[in-house]
Amino acid sequence: MQYCAYDLENGQNHLVSYVGTALQLFLQNLQNPQNPKTATMKKQSLFIILTIFSLLLLWKMYLPISSIPGKYVNNNTRPILEGPSPIAQGQDTLILFEEGTFTSKTWGDGTYEVETSLRGTKIDLSYTFAAGQGGFHTTVSKSLLGNLKIWLDYDLEFYFEKID
Length: 164
What we know:
By secondary structure, the chain is α+β, with helices and mostly antiparallel strands. The protein folds into two domains: about 15-60; about 65-160, Lipocalin, CATH 2.40.128. It is built from two helices and eight strands, in the order ααββββββββ. The protein has helices at about 15-30, 35-60, and strands at about 70-75, 95, 100-105, 110-115, 120-130, 130-140, 150-155, 160. Strands 1-2-3-4-5-6-7-8 form an eight-stranded antiparallel barrel. Strand 7 (about 150-155) and strand 8 (about 160) form a beta hairpin. Helix 1 runs antiparallel to helix 2. The longest helix has 26 residues, at about 35-60. It is elongated, with a radius of gyration of 21 Å.
């Protein structure tokens, strides 16, 4: 049996699943200790594992607003309904400025707002186009190495990745 916490917004479940499986096996062994010293060592190991897992989770979730402004490029290679053209049609660049404005080939000039919470970081892009006002609401994530991604379509793995 695997423990799995599936994040519907980002579709991330791998790390939690593997740690949950290891934790379950560890707890099964903890319930049947061979000797008292082994049980104490196992409890200490469990504490260390949970601490490391918590720190990794906090690192991945913590995203200061000041780290979001910068230059992002898209990675998509297939057409999508809304958003930047595929790379085959010319790579789109999204530049987020510190004062809350942005510019891109697809959406033109506009404004953005960032919202952080325990559930993650979200960004709202607002822009004007020929038919009026438009907007795009999406999430911002950080890999364990610290690379920022603004997601266009998580299922198709289309995103803007921060390069500067």
